[in-house]
């Protein structure tokens, strides 16, 4: 059975985080050569009876979808992580359970990330959307753009809004979830739910009894029941780093944890690389905007986090969007993935050049990195200023925010 890519997701609530902020972060570990793009989809209304084509299957569309910003492997429909206009953030983890994941094409965990964001105005609504779709359509299909082998996994999710978070873990259509309102939580590519379960599939316990995995006499421990051997042990050293911050977890503290290669949170192995990262800051006071920082490039220790704020008519950023191949895309043709097109976007190509400079000319590379980190620092300080103001944010001030940050980064690379 294939190992799940070792991604990490975090959330910190007051009093562990600063200034009444909920801070969310994820490193997305994926195959080393995979390109992630950052894409925005405006809120939309849909005709009755219309369908939506996900990565592998078509499902019923809903009357209205929320505006979303997503970081996604550019060959698929869903997303590894993202946010919506209502301050909901969702990230997913591939996990292995004692129940083999289905190779039959259904919804991917990444499709469920996007569907939860498009249809849920709170974390609990997004959870309800995901589990309902799981029940109706199931999960399955190749997690990777690989025509030679089918890599299948079950899914775990971290679903966060301004007030609460839910850890949702699944095996097939069965699931359990824990509600979080304080402290620091981390999920990775192993099951983490134990006996504290706040919501579950109505047939979950009957199902595991019928499989002989639980006798009904002992406490029901989701990880122990569904994990292979001791795979449910604590997996996340990054959580300790955040807890040591006391009450000072901020966007910068989360970024620092995501950049930490020594802890293993920033993945750079023979098979997998952190191909993109996100940090979101969600003020518990709804009069302040949520701010979402995306890298759009691999290896957060060599990337910069650029801010995005939801406003009407936000400017699209083609330079972080991969080329579209339409119906000729090998991911859409049957049999799938017989070719691998060049999906690199403009920022990805510029970042490749910068990585090469860092590896081959240390002095110039370090100088460039200092300039880029200073650019990132200016962005973080500008966003802190927005969150400390008493007056309401003028949307015109940030409509070009992410576009301008990407454009400035590209100018420095050139």
Between the first and last Cα atoms, what is the distance in angstroms? 44 Å
Helix content: 25-40%
Q: Biggest sheet, strands in spatial order?
A: 3-8-9-10-11-12-13-15
Work out the strand percent. Answer: 15-25%
Which series of helices and strands comes N to C? EEEEEEEEEEHHEEEEEHHHHEEEHHH
Q: What's the main sheet like?
A: 8 strands, antiparallel
Instruction: Label the overall shape.
Output: globular
Number of strands: 18
pLDDT < 50 stretches: none
Secondary-structure class: alpha+beta
Mean pLDDT over the residues: 95
Radius of gyration: 20 Å
Number of helices: 9
Please, could you describe this protein's structure?
By secondary structure, this protein is α+β, with helices and mostly antiparallel strands. It is built from nine helices and 18 strands. The protein has helices at residues 109-119, 123-137, 204-210, 222-226, 238-243, 251-258, 346-360, 362-388, 401-413, and strands at residues 8-12, 21-31, 36-41, 44-45, 51-53, 58-60, 64-65, 68-73, 81-84, 89-95, 154-160, 165-171, 174-180, 184-187, 199-200, 272-283, 291-294, 306-308. A hairpin with a 7-residue loop joins strand 16 (272-283) and strand 17 (291-294). Helix 1 (109-119) crosses helix 2, helix 7 packs across helix 8 and helix 7 packs across helix 9 (401-413). The longest helix has 27 residues, at 362-388. The radius of gyration is 20 Å and the shape is globular. The termini are far apart. The mean pLDDT is 95. This is Secernin 1. One of its GO terms (biological process) is proteolysis. Pfam families: Peptidase_C69.
């Amino acid at each position: 059975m294939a190992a799940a890519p070792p991604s990490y997701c975090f959330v910190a609530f007051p009093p562990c985080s600063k200034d009444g902020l909920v801070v969310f972060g994820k490193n997305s570990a994926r195959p080393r050569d995979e390109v992630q793009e950052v894409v925005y989809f405006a809120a939309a209304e849909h005709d009755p009876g219309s369908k939506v084509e996900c990565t592998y299957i078509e499902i019923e569309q809903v009357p209205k979808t929320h505006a979303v910003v997503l970081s996604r492997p550019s060959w698929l429909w869903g997303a590894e992580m993202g946010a919506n206009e209502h301050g909901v953030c969702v990230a997913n983890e591939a996990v292995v359970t004692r129940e083999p994941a289905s190779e039959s094409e259904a919804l991917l965990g990444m499709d469920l990330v996007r569907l939860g964001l498009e249809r849920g105005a709170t974390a609990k609504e997004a959870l309800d959307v995901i589990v309902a779709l799981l029940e109706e359509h199931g999960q399955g299909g190749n997690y990777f753009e690989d025509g030679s082998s089918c890599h299948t996994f079950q899914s775990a999710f971290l679903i966060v809004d301004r007030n609460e978070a839910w850890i949702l873990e699944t095996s097939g259509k069965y699931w359990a979830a824990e509600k979080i309102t304080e402290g620091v939580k981390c999920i990775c590519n192993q099951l983490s739910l134990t006996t504290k379960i706040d919501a579950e599939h109505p047939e979950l316990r009957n199902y595991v009894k019928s499989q002989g995995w639980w006798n009904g006499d002992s406490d029901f421990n989701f990880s122990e029941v569904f994990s292979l051997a001791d795979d449910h042990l604590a997996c996340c050293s990054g959580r300790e780093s955040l807890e040591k911050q006391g009450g000072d977890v901020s966007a910068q503290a989360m970024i620092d944890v995501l950049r930490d290669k020594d802890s293993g949170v920033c993945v750079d192995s023979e098979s997998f690389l952190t191909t993109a990262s996100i940090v979101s800051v969600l003020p518990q006071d709804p009069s302040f905007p949520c701010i979402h920082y995306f890298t759009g490039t691999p290896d957060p220790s060599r990337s910069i986090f650029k801010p995005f704020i939801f406003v009407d008519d936000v400017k699209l950023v083609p330079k972080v969007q991969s080329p579209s191949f339409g119906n000729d895309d090998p991911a859409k043709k049957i049999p799938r993935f017989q070719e691998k097109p060049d999906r690199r976007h403009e920022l990805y190509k510029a970042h490749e050049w910068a990585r090469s400079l860092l590896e081959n000319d240390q002095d110039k590379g370090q100088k460039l990195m200092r300039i880029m980190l200073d650019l990132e620092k200016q962005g973080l300080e500008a966003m802190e200023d927005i969150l400390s103001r008493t007056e309401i944010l003028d949307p015109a001030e940030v409509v070009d925010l992410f576009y301008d940050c990407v454009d400035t980064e590209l100018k420095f690379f050139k």
